[in-house]
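Title: Prediction job returns without error message
Component: structure pipeline
Severity: low
Priority: P3
Assignee: unassigned

Description:
Job completed but the reporter wants confirmation the result is attached to the right record. Sequence as submitted:
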Amino acid sequence: MTRAMVLLGIGVFVLGASMVMGAAPPAKPDSLRKLAAEYYGWRDRNFPVASSSQGLHTWDDRLADFSAGAIAARRNRVVGLLGQVRAMPADGWQKDDRIDWLLFRAQLETAEFFDRVMDPEATNPQVYVNECSNAIFSLLKKEYAPPRDRALAATARLRAMPALVEQGKANLVRPVGLYARLAIDAARAIDPLFNDSLKTLAAALRPGERDDLARAREAALAALHGFADWLEKRLPQMTAFKPMGEDRYNELLRRAYLLPLDARQVEMLGQAELARYRALEGLLPDPALADPDPSRSAVVPKDQEDFLKAYESRQDEVVRFLREKNLLTLPPYLGRFSIRQLPEAFKPTSPGGFMNPPGLYDTDPSGFYFIPTYNPKSPNFYIRAAIEDPRPILGHEGIPGHFLQISIANHLPDEIRRQHGDGVFVEGWALYGEEMLMRTGLYPDGSAGQGQVLRLSRYRAARIGVDVNLHTGRWTFEEAVKYFMEDGGLDREAAEGEAAGAASDPTQKITYMVGKWQIMRLLGLYRDRRGKDFRLGAFHDDLLKNGSLPLSIVEWLVLDDPGTLERALGAMGTR
């Protein structure tokens, strides 16, 4: 999942003060949409850093309030609203109204689940380090306002960070050692973001304002470094990573993703797909082509700048291919997609980089993919792949992948659907796009590009086993790392980062292959339904125009068949 969507998707959400807990639920669809609009507005005000990341810059000078009272109030509001939404008489509503009810309920179910089961403010120190790093990063990544305005906002946020760190220390009554180690690494790597990156804005300040920024920055860095030291001293006494268990994992699959699968079925899907892609690697003329090797590249970039330019230039080839093959429609509002260097603070849990698509509220339609620092001798899979042939990753992150798909989703007129960021759809589409480009002829048979697509699918399949088995309690963390290396084909650095990401964000790692499988299934049904009128590009357009919704709902919209959704809802024991 994209980093911006993670911030918005699993945060603690809140309800507007106008709602009274326990009140009778409104019975009409218009009332549902009013509730949702109030909810989104209140959430955005209470999570200003997430709002900034999504292109809403009203509260750029604030951080979230993580005091115990604020956390409790937010959670109570979510529980109260969810109870009212569950009680709505939506069975008798029209199809589109019922779909919106299901989506809004799933958004609330996700928030309530992570509050209740993961309790991140009490267990995960990354919550507080991420709030600080994203507080500054969200002000830097786009030139949405004059540099001086953004620098003043940065000063205000930096000033608030020592108090936020103290709130974190008070809240962390059950810190998990694995999460703490990731937070320590991120906190100690944050200096370049606060120092070097902020210099681009500080030049616009008056002398006194520059001094204020410098003092605030030093205090924030001291607080974060002190937080890392505080965590490190307590590591021996911290709680070990604890799986949520199979019942709760199944609850998350059903209620958040509306999936017609349980944990064991998902794990079996991962085994089947892993076996298939390992075998397909073996069927290559040279199986070593699946393991990226910069020495095979005709041109090796000379430095970081050359690397980023070479990477970005290959997107034009993919776009030309899509147009020539009429594989999908590129909307006229599509902005520019670019490649940037990954900030050091985000490396512990994002070893391959991450995507920043246009935000929900962005007036700027551009997007970025952050790639790790260039090193031609790096063992990191993503760096090696980017040097040899970046097109498979560009197809995933850029066009036709995340950048295109999320740009389209952001233009939906239905607010509930526009706000929905289903990770299974988002990552499933991006992974599907990698193989779709290969199957339609972008890469020659027996090429490094083709080999890379197979390896990328192989390790996405391996992610399923890691995620399911970690969180259902069948595997230890080290067993997960070993599985990524031996079965997924990753180097140790990438494998440890992948396993850490899986432990920190349950179910995110299954979204790729589960979503791809659902899209492939839907493609087959769509082709059968269209018969001689079938066109692949039309399928892609019909799929993307609905936004980032659960694929069981997309199937109902595209084929007018609610069967898959009914199976998912039946397994939930609810309407």
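Comment from assignee: result matches the submitted record. Strands lie at 337-341, 354-356, 367-371.
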